[in-house]
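If it is no trouble, can you show me the amino acids of a protein and the tokens describing how it folds?
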Amino acid sequence: MTELKYDPRNYRIHTDKNKRLIRKSLEDCGAGRSILFDKDDCIIAGNGVYEQALELGLPVRIVESDGTELIAIKRTDLSTEDSRRKALALADNYTSDTSVFDFDAIVEDFGADELDAWEFKIDDLNIDDISIDDVMPDKERVGSLKERFIIPPFSVLDSKLGNWQDRKRAWLDLGIKSDDGREKEITFSRSAQPPRVYEARNVIREKTGADPSWNELQKYCRDHGIPFMDGTSIFDPVLCELAYRWFNIPNGCILDPFAGGSVRGIVASMLDMTYFGVDLRPEQVEANCKNAVEVLGEEFGGKGGHKFAPLWLCGDSVEIDALAEGYEADLVFSCPPYADLEVYSDDPADLSTMDYPEFLQAYKEIIRKSCSLLKPNRFAVFVVGEVRDKSGVYRSFVPDTIAAFQEAGLHYYNEMILVNNIGSLAMRAGKQFSNSRKIGKQHQNVLVFYKGDLSKIKENFPELDFSNDDLFKED
């Protein structure tokens, strides 16, 4: 008998459970419906059944057809009331539900119009149903999108989801203290606190006869187990990791013109990437270096095993071409100040203290100079968000950022929406919306740009698969 070949583009992935049930059905009930293969002996339908039948040593009888007739199989050993017949009916209907669609293969092979013609809804596919351990190893399948890319590479990144939060905790458990160096200057959102914080302030006021400072109030709340929003915006290490893994090359060099806290430098080092960050405030640079020593490898005073120490330089990023002279970046990545939404210091050179036209002029100059240090055929990623002017109108900061990169000669390539935790928004949104019809903002824009020849992306950026990533796996 001709040896049949498995379909290399099979749109179903057979999990271990699915294979067990197919085998049980064959053993307990015998063969059911037939399988189908083409004139080249490649299976069209029934890959999973054929695999289990071979393992059980079942003979295979071939019936040839040109597709103009329906071939029916009559089971002469089964009656309508036979218990094995009932079991076979159940198995036939259920086993297909225990396999899952290969999302990647379907999207690669079919356009949206073709899928619509079959009333096939992509949203119906559950991409998280299968793990790498369920895959048929002989077919060289990879795991789900979540396994392969850490987070599925979709245009909406939901940081509220459990797997995102688990990974974020793993990063922070390393000892990252990205808010160090900013406590005295940050003014954003300290007024948005849970009611118990204001009750605590009243208690302190009654005891001391004076209003406590925010630092005193924060300490009191911490000592008494009262949740306190510390007023600092901390960069998400998971987003940072994704940007580095997805849009940098292995061991690539990162340039960050708005360095801020220690997160982005420490994550780079943990991923064996070189990091060069510029920040205007010496106290921030000092705090970052101290935290890096605490977290990183033995050669840096921490956990050990990393090739590159992050470098932070104190300076004005308007002069980044001089500050980073000779640095050849494989990725420009940053989260700039959102105009004056969050004031970082009272330094007149700090972009967050400028009015918007002045801010925008300096901002575009920094982007242009940063991109001049970016190698050809490389990505740039900025995390930004819309901000309102004093009258409440959006400033168009996101479009201005896109325009700045385009003026620097880069292609606008991807946009992702980062969905943030609700936090204090739940307390502010109702009153804000009732008074002004302003929607509570719960997202940021992750903008991806590319410098160079788009056709070179596949050549320069390897296929990704983090299924066996051991960054946070225990020894």
About this structure: The radius of gyration is 29 Å.
